[in-house]
Every structure is written in C-alpha cells, then in structure tokens.
Amino acid sequence: MEKQLYTGQVRTLGESMARSTTEAHAFKIFMDEPPELGGRNGAPSPLDFILAAHAGCLNYMTFFIAKELGIPVTSTEITVRGSLDPAKFAGTDRNVRAGYQSLDVTLLIKSPANADQIAKLKSEVEARCPVSDNLANPTPIHITMKTVA
Length: 149
Known about the structure:
Blueprint: E1 11-14, E2 20-24, E3 27-31, H1 46-69, E4 75-84, H2 87-90, E5 100-110, H3 115-128, H4 130-136
Antiparallel strand pairs: 1-2, 2-3, 4-5
C-alpha cells in the first residue's frame, strides 16, 4: 500500500516589495517589513513567520508526544531567536548564508515530570518536529518563474 503524503500549499499575492497576503486554507496571513526594508511595519516579516512556525510546531509536538509518553503538560512557553547576517540578502557578500545562521530555542513546560521524562520528551520532540527537520536539513526547492499578462 502506498503511503499517503501530506501536501501543504499556500498562495501569496504581493502588493509591493515588502507587503504580501498569503492564503492558507481559509486563513489570510499578512506579511510586511520594517520601514528600513521598504515596508510599513504593519505585520510580521517572512523571517518572523519562520520563527513562529518553528515555535508553533514545537508546541504541538511537545503536547502530542507528552500525551503519547504519559507525561502531563499543562502549558508551554517557547522563545525562538534567529541570528542572520543580512550581507547576502543585501548583495554585499555572496559567501554567507542568506537565511538564519543559527536558531536558539528555549522551551519551558509546566509539568510535574522528572528529569528523565523531560530528557526523553526533549529527545523525541527534537527528532520528530517537522519544522525543525525542514530548518535543520536541506529540502529540495524547485522554483518556476513565469511572466503573466
């Protein structure tokens, strides 16, 4: 039997260099940039959404795996900080990565679990979070660009 794959899809319409609206299922996600990058600072930037997606996925996986392991978790507080050298983005240094050079995550959980249980939970969350996997490993990207009338 063939495995069923989840296929995600979004559609983004750009209204300027810095502002766009993305449709994801029945939801609209607005993105903007700060004024120094040509935006109006009216919404989080695409880079902010990467951090938010990572935190959201870590939250889901923490609760999901904790339930699987029988570890009670009542809440999480997750901070994701990314460090980025803008030189490649700006076109001044092609020898650095365009994206985040590193991400630091602090994941606080409210739970009566002991240290061994937390270590097991952390290990499983690290290994199974899809967004962590996409950020930590190369994912083939195929871009097609066409003109429209």
